[in-house]
Specification:
The longest helix has 23 residues. The protein is an alpha/beta fold. Helix 12 runs parallel beside helix 13 and helix 13 packs parallel to helix 14. The chain is built from 14 helices and 16 strands. The chain starts with a helix and ends with a strand. Among the domains are: 56 residues, no CATH class; 76 residues; 99 residues, no CATH class.
């Protein structure tokens, strides 16, 4: 019989479903209990004793009825309230005033609660104050600046972390009020970064880890970046986002200059658009940044995906996040060639793939064994389930070839009659995760079809 210590480690390993990799940089996020943990907790009393702390460490309260159940547990002396570490309170819960009173009664009973996630728009100031004053809580997590209630500027916000704040330069007054009251932030979006100059450099946004610049037609000066980076030691990610495809067609920032020249030499410039470029510091104290993320969208005339990916790989060997969209692509490829070129990305952690299935030569011809049980002979659903099986196979091959790969995001669609692009449509979307030790793939894609 295995010792408790080993069982505990095993349970901890499988306790929660993997989270999207874009949550990783925050350092804290809500975890959902895995089906495996639920099954293990029912094996016997010993396993239940080991599993119970993991079952209730993260608790989601979505309505008043659930809040009442939690209050009853507190009143009856149950062990469960003492196991809760992170509490997520949803919008539907806060919409009912009765829930505010219940929360004030419940919070003092959660003796080990360390984080409250308020996933709501503008809670009442009384409720917000109650949450901030809970003595055991060190972090109160909210989505953005827009979610704060009126009157927040008089409160001590040292426990508050804004996950994602968006501002348009030079309108920083509300955000600066938050900072002065002690709030921290994880990610900051700036619109019109072309207006930033040296005066932006000394500004401090406490706790900032990621900066997103929404670029447009106009050139961006990075003269402010050295001073800004020096004042933000936790800042390790910066993205330039050009989803409207205006910026990179007109401007070549210094960090992709050699890559753009290579595209011109190989006559690849007209084959794709760059829509996002991600930068990371070489090390925490460095002022040097390197490209670690890129999103490309191929054009209709493009027949050069392998060449494009090869050039990205050789130009940016530190790429960690790669995304490519083949929606308008017309050529097809053998999966071996796709796997081979992607295997060259030795640092790749996260891969976003859009509209790949029908660009694989053998994709629709292979008789894939369905991993999803279907209770219907619906042709469209069968096609979607077949594509899902193909993606699980492709993901497995990539996981074994790329040691650093931790997750793939799939976004695909097709037609009942693909050649004519006619008839009902199907969609697949979601995350597939790679188990670090076994390199096995886990996860299930969300499947939709036209009615």
């Amino acid at each position: 019989m295995l010792p408790d210590e080993l069982l505990h480690s095993t349970v901890e390993y499988i306790a929660y479903t993997p989270e999207p990799p874009d949550c990783d940089f925050l350092g804290f996020h809500f975890k959902s209990v895995s089906p495996a943990l639920l099954s293990l907790s029912q094996v016997n009393r010993r396993m239940r004793r080991i599993c119970v702390p993991f079952l209730f460490s993260y608790l989601r309260v979505v309505n008043v009825a659930e809040a009442m159940k939690l209050m009853d547990l507190c009143r009856t002396g149950s062990i469960i309230p003492s196991l809760i570490r992170v509490l997520l309170l949803s919008a539907s819960y806060y919409a009912q005033k009765e829930g505010h009173k219940i929360l004030r009664q419940v919070l003092p009973c959660l003796h080990h609660l360390s984080c409250i996630h308020l996933r709501i728009p503008r809670p009442s100031i009384d409720l917000f104050t109650t949450v901030l004053e809970q003595p055991t809580v060190s972090t109160v997590l909210m989505r953005s600046l827009d979610n704060l209630p009126g009157g927040f500027s008089k409160l001590n916000l040292s426990k508050l972390v804004l996950k994602h704040t968006s501002v348009a330069f030079p309108r920083f007054s509300t955000l600066e009020t938050c900072i002065r009251r002690g709030a921290r932030m994880a990610s900051l979006d700036i619109h019109r970064p072309d207006l930033l100059d040296e005066s932006f450099g000394p500004r401090i946004f406490t706790g900032l880890q990621e900066l997103n610049l929404f670029v447009c037609y106009f050139p961006v000066s990075f003269s402010w970046l050295p001073a800004f980076a020096s004042g933000h030691p936790s800042l390790n990610k910066m993205w330039l986002l050009d989803d409207k495809k205006h910026y990179f067609d007109r401007h070549t920032p210094y960090f992709i200059h050699s890559f753009v020249e290579g595209c011109h030499r190989q006559e690849l410039s007209e084959c794709f658009d760059i829509t996002r470029v991600g930068l990371s510091r070489v090390n925490q104290s460095s002022q040097e940044w390197r490209v670690t993320g890129m999103t490309i969208v191929t054009k209709f005339a493009s027949t050069s995906l392998i060449e494009i990916l090869s050039l990205i790989c050789s130009s940016f060997p530190a790429i960690e996040v790669l995304s490519f969209d083949l929606d308008r692509h017309k050529d097809t490829y053998h999966i071996d060639d796709i796997v081979s070129v992607l295997a060259g990305f030795s640092c790749l952690r996260v891969l976003y793939i859009s509209h790949l299935y029908n660009r694989i030569e053998s994709g629709r011809k292979t008789s894939w064994k369905l991993v999803r049980q279907l209770e219907t002979n619906d042709v469209c659903k069968i096609l979607a389930a077949t594509a899902e099986s193909a993606f699980l196979c492709y993901a497995s091959r990539l996981a074994k070839q790329i040691a650093s790969l931790s997750a793939l995001h799939i976004d695909d669609m097709g037609y009942e009659h693909e050649k004519s692009r006619y008839g009902r449509r199907w969609w697949l979307k979601g995350w597939l995760h790679v188990r670090a030790s076994s390199r096995d793939i886990e996860g299930e894609l969300r499947m939709l079809t036209d009615h």
